[in-house]
Structures are given as structure tokens and as C-alpha cells.
Amino acid sequence: MNEEEREVLKSIYESDSNFSIINDNTFQYKVILDDDRFYLVEIHWPDNYPDVVPTINLDLFSNRLLTNDFKTKLIEKLTADANEQLGMPMTYTLFESVKDFSYDGDIFLNSLVSNATVSLPSSSATVSTLAAPVIKKEQLTKSQKRRQWNHQMGGENGQKPRGHDWVEIVRHLSQTGNKIES
Where is region (Disordered) located (predicted)? Predict the structure, then answer.
């Protein structure tokens, strides 16, 4: 029965680059949240599968920024879905359940933004502020700017590269049009 489910999974996900087969009993699916954020869900079939719940693994290197609360909620949801499907092939259903999973908290730990606690002198309450990283623009000296300008305009000897003004000539000729002599 496992071989049949494996073949069905291959045929369903053959054009889906987010699905991968790790070995005969382990499958991964990449859930893409936006351009640069995703997480992997790994499902492993134990010996008695599908009569037992498969092992659901989120402890993968690419998931290191997922919050523990998110991982726990997702595993609880998938385990509940798997218990409803005992005795039947369920890997496809579990991967589809992962795609439809909605979570109302922070999915990722915020590694680029640091949390700082500030004590207010007038009260005992604390306020959490977010300090965004500051990206400094590269500062050039006058001589560096001059060298850059000279390089763009033809180098040290002042000669501009051949054809630097061809666009201007073509635009001028297109504006003047052809003169027909009679």
C-alpha cells in the first residue's frame, strides 16, 4: 500500500518543485509564505503506516526561525488530521492541510529586529520598542567622486568613448526630418 501511495504522490507533485522525496518513507513539502520566507514540513512513514500516525518533523535547519508556538500548533493540527485518516493513505491530505493552515501569531522569530525594554520613570509599566538596523550609505570623498565622474565621462585623458552621443544625433535627425529637394 505504501508503494502505491508513493507513486500517487509522485504523479500528483511531479511538476511541483516544492515537493521532494528524501527516501522511500520520508517526504518534504516547502510552504512559501512570500518572496524570501518559507518553511519545510517533513513527513516520515513508520513501519505500521498508515495504521499509525506518521512522524511530522519541523525541526529542520531551514525552520530554525519558526516560533515554537507555531511549530506546536501546526504539529497538533496535522496530528489531529492524521488521527482522522488512520488506516488510509494520508500524506497528500496532510500536505494540503499544511497549505491551508492559518495561524494568528508571529510565525518567525524576529532575528533582524531586536526587542528592547525601556523603563518609564513615571510608572512601573514597560514599553517594548523595536530598533531597526540602520543601513549607512557609502560616503565618497571629493577625489573618489571626481575619479568616478572621469571614468564615466571618458577616463583621465578627457576623451569620451566612441558613440557616446549617438542617441542625441539620432534624436536630432529624427526631429529635423528629410528635406526633399525639388
Answer: 141-165
Range of the domain at 64: 1-115
Q: Has residue 152 been placed in a domain? A: no
Could you tell me which residues are beta bridge partners of residue 129? Answer: 116
Is 95 within 8 Å of 12 (Cβ atoms)? no
DSSP 159: P
d(CA 129, CA 86): 47
C-alpha grid cell, residue 166: 549617438
- Kindly tell me if the per-residue pLDDT of 157 is higher than 80: no
Q: Is residue 179 part of a domain?
A: no
Beta strands in the chain (DSSP E): 19-23, 26-34, 37-44, 55-57, 114-119, 126-131
Q: Give me the pLDDT at residue 111, please.
A: 44
Name the pLDDT band for 105 (thresholds 50, 70, 90).
low
CATH of the domain at 81: 3.10.110.10
Residue 145: pLDDT band (50, 70, 90) is confident
In 35-157, DSSP assigns E strands to 37-44, 55-57, 114-119, 126-131
Interatomic CA distance for residues 162 and 138, integer angstroms: 31
Instruction: Collapse the DSSP code of 34 into the 3-class scheme (helix H, G, I; strand E, B; otherwise coil) and give the result.
Output: strand
Cβ atoms of residues 19 and 43 within 8 Å: no
Least confident of 90-99, 105-114, 146-155: 105-114
For the residues 50-77, what does the mean pLDDT come to?
Answer: 86
- Total residues belonging to the chain: 182
